[in-house]
Design a protein that fits this description.
Radius of gyration: 15 Å
Mean pLDDT: 94
Shape: elongated
Number of strands: 0
Order of helices and strands: HHHHHHHHH
Low-confidence stretches: none
Strand content: under 5%
Structural class: mainly alpha
Length: 122
């Protein structure tokens, strides 16, 4: 019920808690397109809280987390998380397609993490 109630008001709400609760309920109900849409489009949520929640969830598809981290400057945390979980293909897509300008920061963080050298050469 909460998901549907918040879904009716999230697009017009200026209350960060509404956006966070909507994201949380959408994750619980596995409404991945909605999670990604709100993370990508909303300017209202508290980015730190949403980032922490998404990291806790360990989503199979981290695109919502990628949107949050890219928009709000959590690129190093995103890189560390994706590397730790072995989600290298998402790192590649992020650097090549989503935000090529942030490639040096990603590579720098991977070097700090002693990431697999073969992966870095790709």
């Amino acid at each position: 019920g909460l998901y549907y109630y918040l879904g009716a008001i999230v697009n017009t709400s200026e209350v960060p808690e509404v956006h966070l609760k909507y994201i949380q309920s959408a994750v619980r109900l596995q409404q991945w397109p909605e999670v990604e849409r709100v993370c990508r489009d909303s300017t209202v949520y508290n980015a730190e809280e949403v980032k922490d929640f998404l990291i806790e969830c360990e989503l199979k598809d981290p695109r919502p987390l990628i949107h949050v981290c890219d928009r709000f400057g959590f690129v190093e945390e995103l890189t560390a998380y994706l590397n730790k979980r072995g989600l290298h293909r998402f790192i590649e897509v992020y650097v090549s397609s989503v935000s090529p300008a942030k490639g040096p920061a990603v590579i720098g963080k991977l070097l700090d993490l002693d990431a697999d050298e073969d992966f870095l050469k790709r």
